[in-house]
Amino acid sequence: MQNLYHILEIEYTGRDSHKAHTNVNVQTQVAELKKASKRLSCHKRYKIQKKIREHHRKLRKEAKKRGRKRPRKDPGIPSAAPFKEELLREAEQRKQRLEELKQKQKLDRRKELEKKRKLDAKKNAAKIKENTEGKESSRKSGAKKNKLLDKNSSKSFCRELEKVIEASDVILEVLDARDPLGCRCPQLEQAVCSRQDKKLLLVLNKIDLVPKENLEKWLNYLKNEFPTVAFKSATLLKDKNMQEKVTKRSARIDLSKNTECFGSECLLKLLQEHYKTQNKAIQVGVVGFPNVGKSSIINGLKGARACNVGPARGVTKSMQVVPVDKQMKILDSPSIVADPSNSTLALALRSIIDTEESGLANVFEGIDALISHCNKQQVMMFYSIPDFRSTEEFLTLLAQKRGMLKKGGVPDTESIAKLLLCDWTGAKISYHSQPPEQQRLPPYLTEDKIAEMQKAFNLKKLEEENTITVKALKYPNLASSISFQSAGVTNGTIEENKVVEKASEHKNLETDEEDEEEEEDEEENFTESDDDQDNMEEDEQSIKEGSHSPTLPFIVDKTADEDDAYDFNTDYV
């Protein structure tokens, strides 16, 4: 810093003192901010290297002058010393004694270690037996508790779903507009139609992912059975606990495409008219298969984030009450459990089990069924992938394109398969299915029942509101949307007694087999008689006694050369 000040003073000698002072302050601040560079000029670097070489040369010269100090050799017993032969014999005998003593000590140590290992092994065996006995007793008592406490089990889902159906006056069955027939559950519709005090409404969600012509066909098809509402739920909603913060920067951003909800006013008007005609407060239950948008519809009706929403399946695990106004409450329910007798396509798209927890074989089978029900050329165009022969080849091509690779450049087909299923159940891919040419009513739905369901709601206003929502949205073209062949109606289990939890049974079987194998190994390795236990006690006593034994007279740490060295301080007579 002093050199810097000196240079600056020389530069500004001819100028005014005030200007020079200000410039010096500015340049000193800049110098303080910059870090000192560690780079050196070649001249300086070579100079340093030369000085180091000279220093090492100087040290080597000094070392030569001093000379090396070699360790003095033991001269041994002089030949003139009396009793030379006797002294040599004594030295050899002493060497032999020390070597024998060392070997004895090594053997004693090994024996002690072996005894300790045996004792530890026996103690561990006793502990393992106690733990296995405790586990067997706790497993039987804990099995019942786990069944009751496990919220992720399909029985708990059915239990909560039954609560929602019993408590609600109006039930909204949410359908995915891309595959409305596959989202319908005949068991649910039959349970609702069997009761006269309950009404059923169909909500056609995700209408923005389907071509306009296809949407109109489905609305015309479904309104002949139940009153249907066209709906597009909001993808982004503010949290109910968050306060609005308006700034100049946020005012410029237009989030209307993401936050705006279509069809919510129509649905609210329908429900409000219904409870006005009945002159009582009503509860509305929202029911459907996973990833159809049940919780997002409730958030759209409430106008805030009242329920948790996510791309994972089975986010809602229990009944949740959301009050909309004084006369109406909405009940959010867990998803309908798909029956295992359904096709692989229906189970892949409509099952509650998440892709991360389900087996890879089930995921690959589901994708195989999904691709076989789609137009191959449209799939190739959508993903911009060349022609493929099998699903494995399709997944490898897609993984290579998206850069999902393992070590060594191997395509990660497992993760891409899970991601693909999430995309098809989520709101990313646009695909559409055609309604059936002939409308056949199910046996539980008669003309009288259809008339009874339609009387409860104003159908003219419903059609007008549906046309407004259909006109307000933008839709994908038929060419860009993938044509999909529906697998038909998906059977579901609503009653808790009819649910068969296969996953839990398999887990219990696996744990039982593992426990049996462990017990067999323990019995083979650690079966011992009463004599062994007595030996164990004797070994413990011997170890304790050995620990308090007096020290040995000879010191073993010294080397043989030091002990056998002749002591010349002794006087000979």
How many alpha or pi helices? 21
The helix-and-strand class reads alpha/beta
Fraction in helix = 40-55%
What integer is the average pLDDT? 76
**Strand order in the sheet with the most strands:** 3-2-1-4-6-5
Low-confidence spans: 4-8, 10-16, 237-258, 502-514, 521-534, 542-573
User: Gyration radius, to the nearest Å?
Assistant: 43 Å
Shape: elongated
Strand % is 5-15%
Cα distance spanning the termini? 82 Å
- Give a count of the beta strands, DSSP E runs of length 2 or more: 10
Main sheet summary:
6 strands, mixed
Task: Describe, in plain words, how this protein is organized in 3D.
By secondary structure, this protein is of the alpha/beta class. It is built from 21 helices and 10 strands. The chain has helices at 2-11, 17-33, 42-66, 84-149, 154-167, 186-193, 212-222, 248-252, 256-259, 264-278, 294-302, 344-350, 360-372, 376-383, 391-402, 413-425, 447-455, 459-472, 502-526, 530-547, 560-564, and strands at 170-176, 199-205, 228-230, 282-287, 320-325, 328-332, 337-338, 431-432, 482-483, 492-493. It has a 6-stranded mixed β-sheet, with helices on both faces. The chain has a two-stranded antiparallel ribbon with strand order 7-10. Strands 8-9 form a two-stranded parallel sheet. β1 (170-176), α6 (186-193) and β2 form a beta-alpha-beta unit. The radius of gyration is 43 Å and the shape is elongated. The two termini are 82 Å apart. The relative contact order is 0.12. Mean pLDDT is 76; it is low at 4-8, 10-16, 237-258, 502-514, 521-534 and 542-573.
